[in-house]
């Protein structure tokens, strides 16, 4: 591979997350960006060797973002505290960036609502890094992915 191609491959990336105008900070793990076509199977009478696979709708998986607990954790808690007044669907942007801040690609999610926030498990028996996870549901992607 050439050096120019090596720089464009996002080997080590972090994920910058924004919900409308709220900056939720940087996460080091993003799981669940994807969708699938739900198929309905129909058997045709008299045709025993074939089952029709009919596409019906798109189904989007929830997105799980994780990171070690940092000062940015307060941003997520403030966002959740604001949900006590009512939950409205938002638009989220997830940007994959290299460690030097170069944008690799981004995804815009429409109709975002929070599903779950899980804080760190603090135990003297387990000296692991304290992490938090934010899970978001959405109604699909806006536009195409890309930088």
TrEMBL record:
Pfam families from the UniProt entry: Phage_T4_gp19
GO molecular function, one term: structural molecule activity
Origin: domain of life: Bacteria
Protein name: Phage tail protein
Lineage of the organism: Bacteria, Bacillati, Actinomycetota, Actinomycetes, Micromonosporales
């Amino acid at each position: 591979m050439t050096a120019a191609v090596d720089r464009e491959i996002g080997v080590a990336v972090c994920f910058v997350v924004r919900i409308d105008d709220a900056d939720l900070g940087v996460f080091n793990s993003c799981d669940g960006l994807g969708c699938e076509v739900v198929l309905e199977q129909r058997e045709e009478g008299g045709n025993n060797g074939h089952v029709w696979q009919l596409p019906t709708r798109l189904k989007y998986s929830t997105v799980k973002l994780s990171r070690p607990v940092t000062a940015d954790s307060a941003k997520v808690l403030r966002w959740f505290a604001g949900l006590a007044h009512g939950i409205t669907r938002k638009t989220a942007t997830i940007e994959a960036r290299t460690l030097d801040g170069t944008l690799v690609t981004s995804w815009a999610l429409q109709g975002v609502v929070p599903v779950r926030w899980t804080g760190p498990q603090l135990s003297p028996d387990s000296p692991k890094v304290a992490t938090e996870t934010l899970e978001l549901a959405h109604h699909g992607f806006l536009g195409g992915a890309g930088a």
